[in-house]
Design brief:
Its EC number is 2.1.1.95. It is an enzyme of class 2 (transferase). The protein is an alpha/beta fold and about 350 residues long. It has helices at about 1-5, 15-25, 30-75, 95-110, 130-140, 150-160, 200-210, 235-250, 260-265, 285-295, 295-305, 305-315, 315-325, and strands at about 120-125, 140-145, 170-175, 185-190, 210-225, 270-275, 330-335. α3 (about 30-75) packs antiparallel against α11, α8 (about 235-250) packs antiparallel against α13 (about 315-325) and α10 (about 285-295) runs antiparallel to α13.
Length: about 350
């Protein structure tokens, strides 16, 4: 009993008050933590707003310029693939764009055996649907294209109807980073010169992987900057300045290197990863585009298109400069989703 009495101390209201004060202090927000949270929220908000602004800029740029491009260069809104041993002729440029599609398929090892042809294809960043219609005719596949530009989607569908492909191809406005397709749906995932517009390259490749069926081929043809050397932490200041000017005109986010894409593909456990630098094969393209812009037809079409198209035309020489300096790399990355 004595032991029990010693352990049972008299009630002390000051102890209760101390405990309450301690609990109250615990509930008080930590000023540094609150400041960090607010900064994080502001940073996330700014990033979201920047992403929305980029999407809006891309859509408006292609709404404005796609008609101009089609009138001069046709339905394929991408570089041509040229033989490095033969001078490019004026008549070869449109066929070089078709050759780009075929070379990409060949490099990726898409089977020539008709029993193994892809049956469902997604064209991510489809432009006015040139690749989609070509792949639908080549493989007899069902093709679905997505773009941020309503003008492009409408024009792509109209061309599909005109070519008798309305039952084979369809187009819609959608974000490549949040695609409106179920998991594992496509046998061939195709992105021809759209990756450079993606602000989150990890999310971009992840979405391509998500919609790919097991065993499906993924093809990314895109603009990259050169790989950094082991002694470099970043590009040189003059290189960053040059790319920034191009980004401003073409609504591009930060560039990445081919090795960055390989690392992303490896992190997603993709198989048979291959890359190639096709910069030499596309070298005649930008001089030809510049030449076409300074024809009477090109000049008048450019003036009618609007300021965004004019701004894009003015920086075309910077693309040539980037290629000449070995800063810009026209890169193909192909891989396969595991079975």
């Amino acid at each position: 009993m004595a032991t029990l009495l010693r352990t049972c101390q008299p009630f002390d209201p000051r102890g209760l008050s101390s405990a309450r004060r301690f609990e109250k202090e615990k509930r008080k927000p930590n000023p540094s933590r609150v400041l960090h949270q607010r900064r994080s929220q502001r940073s996330s908000f700014r990033a979201a707003m920047a992403a929305e602004g980029l999407k809006k800029g891309i859509a408006e740029f292609y709404n404005e310029s796609s008609g101009l491009w089609e009138s001069i260069w046709g339905e394929h809104m991408h570089h041509g693939f040229y033989d490095t041993t033969t001078p490019a002729s004026v008549s070869d440029h449109r066929s070089a764009q078709i050759r780009m599609v075929d070379e990409a398929l060949r490099f990726a090892g898409v089977p020539e055996d008709s029993s193994k042809w892809p049956k469902r294809v997604v064209d991510v960043g489809c432009g006015i649907g040139g690749s989609s219609r070509y792949l639908a005719k080549k493989y007899g596949a069902q093709c679905q294209g997505i773009t941020l530009s309503p003008v492009q989607a409408q024009r792509a569908q109209a061309l599909a109807v005109a070519e008798g492909l309305a039952d084979k191809v369809s187009f819609q406005v959608a974000d490549a980073l949040d695609q409106p397709f179920p998991d594992g749906h496509f046998d061939l995932v195709w992105s021809m010169e759209s990756g450079e517009h993606m602000p989150d390259k990890n999310k971009f490749v992840s979405e391509l992987t998500r919609v790919a069926a097991p065993g499906a081929t993924i093809i990314i043809v895109t603009w990259c900057h050169r790989d950094l050397s082991p002694s470099e932490d970043s590009l040189k200041p003059d290189e960053i300045t040059l790319l920034s000017k191009i980004c401003n005109a073409y609504y591009l986010p930060e560039w990445c290197s081919p090795s960055d894409y390989v690392k992303i593909a490896e992190s997603l456990s993709l198989k048979d990863i291959k890359t190639a630098d096709w910069s030499d094969n596309v070298a005649p393209f930008w001089p030809a585009v510049i030449q076409s812009a300074f024809t009477w037809k090109g000049f008048m079409s450019l003036l009618r298109s609007g300021w965004k198209s004019i701004k894009g035309a003015l920086v075309m020489p910077l693309m040539i400069e980037g290629y000449n300096k070995k800063l810009i790399k026209f890169t193909i990355i192909t891989c396969r989703k595991p079975e």
